[in-house]
Every structure is written in structure tokens, then in C-alpha cells.
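Anyone opening a protein record will find just a pair of labelled lines. The record below illustrates this layout.
***
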Amino acid sequence: MKAWQHFRTINHHRFLVMKGCFKVGLYRQGLLHDLSKYSPSEFLVGCRYYQGTRSPNNAEREEIGYSRAWLHHKGRNRHHYEYWIDYSTDPKEGIIGMKMPVRYVIEMFIDRIAAAKTYRGSKYTDSYPLEYYEKGVARLGRMVHPETAQLLHSLLKMLARDGEEETFRYIRGKVLKK
């Protein structure tokens, strides 16, 4: 078990998210981000499967076929689009992604940056979160509401093109002011 390393990784990630959230004015979300990671359901799995270069939930998923820690986490943290998956009011549509409130889309955006910085370290670039998103976007299908996906994608493109400071300034001045 690598409890200390996992604890440091969680703290580092949360610090980066907090810093980003504070820059755009989401103080409460910055303070409360990912607190469920300290719960036994998530923390013990993280210690057991810790690798330092990717989420321990991926290793748990590979070993047992799903991740108990992820199921716990996504059900308690509104900045994950999976939290917003529900049955459509139209029975023909089945299960779909609901539109996320903008403040949680922004937290999700900042979370992606922080995760990339945490796991990539010195290899991080502002274009990496966009590249990672675009590799997986085809698999998302109807699990992310189109307006949520559009906002996230446009912010990731802006990050890659204009950098973090300019994108955060835009979020603070335009996106969250609406």
C-alpha cells in the first residue's frame, strides 16, 4: 500500500483545482473539490492501486472489471458529467446526459487541467487536456449533454490556443458573468 504517496497526490490535485477555482471566483467549489477522495471507500482503493502516473481507479477497473471507488466518487461530485446521467423525459431516448450547470462545467474543466498536471508532471502542456478529451470524445455519445460538451470543448480549445491565464480571465469575465 502506498498511502502516503496517494495522500500527497490527492492533496496536490486538490490544491491545483482550488487554485484554479479561486482564479475564476468559484471559492466554495475550490474548497470542497473531491473531498470524497478521503473517504475509506475511495482512499483505501487509491492506496491499493496507486501508481502515480494515472488514476488508481483505472487499475481497480482492470483488475475486477469496474471501479467501486469511481462509482462512489462520481455519485458525490457534481463536476463529473457522469453525475448528471439520467433517464430522459422522452422514453424513446433512454439514458442521456443532462445539461450541467455552468459552474460545474468550469470545475470539470479545471479538474481536467489539474489531473493532467498531476499525472503528466513536467510533460504537461496546455494542449494536453484538449488532446486527451478529443481522444475519448467519440465514446461519450449521448452521455454528455450537447451544450455541456460544447462549452467544455471550446474552453479546452481556448486553453490550448491562448493558455491558462487568458482562459481563466475569459471564464471569470464572460462565462460566469452570464
User: Anything to note?
Assistant: The CA atoms of residues 21 and 42 lie 23 Å apart.
